[in-house]
Prior knowledge:
Chains A, B: Belongs to the GbsR family. Chains A, B: Keywords: DNA-binding, Transcription, Transcription regulation. Chains A, B: This is HTH-type transcriptional regulator. Chains A, B: GO terms for molecular function: DNA binding; DNA-binding transcription factor activity. Chains A, B: It holds the Pfam family MarR_2. The structure is a homodimer. By secondary structure, the first copy, chain A, is mainly alpha-helical. Chain A has helices spanning about 10-25, 30-40, 45-55, 55-70, 90-125, 130-155, 160-165, 170-175, and strands at about 45, 75-80, 80-90. Chain A has two domains: about 1-90, Arc Repressor Mutant, subunit A, CATH 1.10.10; about 90-175. In chain A, a hairpin with a 2-residue loop joins β2 and β3. In chain A, α2 crosses α4, α3 packs across α4 (about 55-70) and α5 (about 90-125) packs antiparallel against α6 (about 130-155). Helices cover about 65% and strands about 10% of the residues of chain A. The longest helix of chain A is centred in the middle third of the chain and has 32 residues, at about 90-125. Chain A contains eight helices and three strands, in the order ααβααββαααα. Chain A has a three-stranded antiparallel sheet. Chain A binds a DNA duplex through α4 and β3.
Amino acid sequence: xxxxxxxxxxxxxxxxxxxxxxxxxxxxxxxxxxxxxxxxxxxxxxxxxxxxxxxxxxxxxxxxxxxxxxxxxxxxxxxxxxxxxxxxxxxxxxxxxxxxxxxxxxxxxxxxxxxxxxxxxxxxxxxxxxxxxxxxxxxxxxxxxxxxxxxxxxxxxxxxxxxxxxxxxxxxxxxxxxxxxxxxx
Amino acid sequence: xxxxxxxxxxxxxxxxxxxxxxxxxxxxxxxxxxxxxxxxxxxxxxxxxxxxxxxxxxxxxxxxxxxxxxxxxxxxxxxxxxxxxxxxxxxxxxxxxxxxxxxxxxxxxxxxxxxxxxxxxxxxxxxxxxxxxxxxxxxxxxxxxxxxxxxxxxxxxxxxxxxxxxxxxxxxxxxxxxxxxxxxx
DNA sequence: CGGTTGTTTCGGTAAACACCGAACGCTTTG
DNA sequence: CAAAGCGTTCGGTGTTTACCGAAACAACCG
Lengths: 185, 185
């Protein structure tokens, strides 16, 4: 059957996206399927994905579940078709924020929790080397701050985000007029 | 020999950091070594790392090279010792920026380049579905913008970064007074 | 210049992971 | 209430990746 992937550039995109995924700890099938759905002009049933990418049906199923876990793909119903169909989020900001949210939830938050425990325990532990106590404490504080920042930024309306991004380094002018002008660090 | 890792909390930190790494596509040895160096109060020679973590000497060697590739670990000389010693960057902002810089260089920049090519070619390709052309174009623009933003932010002096981070969502007030107040999206 | 100490390279092995396909269960349909 | 369609689960398999240990290489010292 004819699919999007017949086009060489589409294929290049999907393959690259797949490799990209692997480098960030996402498995190839998952990211390939995401790429395919992102380019599709209509919801696709699992079968078609299977055929287009040459993957096993079961693999596609679990990959789709994973993508839904990130909330960047969702199930939709199509008139007169019993099968589930899937569409990808096409707003790229939304996509990025959701991926970030989920990775934070899965990996960062537990890390913060652990660091919190360790830092707390070390605070009263006289036997531990001073530098260890300080550095684990700093790490905890640092990651917590980043996490807090993300939670705030994530709640800004999208147009604001776009505007901030376009501002780039110039935002610095607002925080401390003198510092905002440097181009070097 | 007695090492930092005798302390259970230090061990917990190192192990967790190692697992963390694997989830982000960094191999376990590399991130464990990084964690160990981060907590160490003095430069460590490869031997000590080998012994402390129970890794093969060769593995430690390649991992150290990798860490130096990220510029978050550097070689130092210690008086009266022929061996190379290694220390980790302890400024966490610096660490984060360097990791980001390197990953951008390795993964994002090539992606932008590829997307640029594809987008350019598709612009003149009448046979390609309209949505594909648009979406690959959008993706290219989006990632390029993010990349540009990073390059600017990266050059801000560190205190400014800290200040901006502390501001959190409040930065939004400067870009468009009405939008900055929302807590929901 | 040997011998010593330290580092890197490389081929093989073991562990992790992705992926497949068969079997199972649920839902719809004739 | 069979039978077919669809989705998921699960055990096994192949591929990738990390890791080890031996050998090669380089620097230094007597």
